[in-house]
Amino acid sequence: MTGPNRTPERESFMVYLDVELTREGKAFYVSPKAADITRYEELESMYIGVLRGAKYFKRFDEDKMLRKYAMGNYSTALRMVSKGRIDVVVMPELLGDYINKTNAFALRKASFKAAGQPSFIAVSKKSKLAQSVKELEVALRNMKADGTIDRIIGRYR
Question: Rounded CA gap, 91 and 148, in Å?
Fold first, then answer.
């Protein structure tokens, strides 16, 4: 899996490679006609699309007052914003920009964003690849050093 944030729960069933990929910020996507979101507190009056099972940032994840609607994928969530069925979607910014652009949703990013946390590549402990973690780490370090990782990420911007 590419990009999961490291949590104790996930570490119970995945091995994380020791190379940090990026700190992808979380962006909030709204309709072009919607008012901008400039502060966290403005989310309290909104219907918010989230990916089922995803973690975003501590305050948001633990906030029981927010009206969050779990969905199976981000494309559906962005489509729901574009059709006015929900107010906003929160998601990793790079992925949000890519899906918004490739699906021509024409949504706008709110001014308010949440800082990203370190993300990694993780391998299921049940996978045969779990035996090759050290080799994978060497390859990933080399890809980061020679700019391959930056070029791959650049394709999504």
Answer: 24
